[in-house]
Design goal:
This protein is an all-alpha fold. The protein contains six helices and no strands. It is globular.
Amino acid sequence: MDFAGYTDEQKAVLLDLLLFGMYLDGNLSAVEDRRIGQLLDTMNFSSPDARNRFVDAAYTRTRQRSSAPEAVRAYVAEVAGKITDADLRRRTFNLLVSMISSDNNVAAPERAVLGIVREEFKLRSSLP
């Protein structure tokens, strides 16, 4: 996976979005976990403990996030405000699609979130 071009702050935002995508279907796969690890490997942490605290905080934020449509839209709008470059938005969307579809099944809530991300990111392509 290529995370070039993202700042560490944008990688943190991406991490949260990918974790949110992972939790939508309640099925966490080894592939998803490996991809999260790959993203974390590209980030600068002062120590393994700092990395662990960062990951723990990201998982906590994700578990607390509502899946209600209006809450998801507000969250995605916040993400869009931090990832403003069109190319990074496209790549972020593609990474999210890849994460969500890694179990070869895109459930209705996952499709809904992808639609919201596509709209908020101002992307034109169709959903998978």
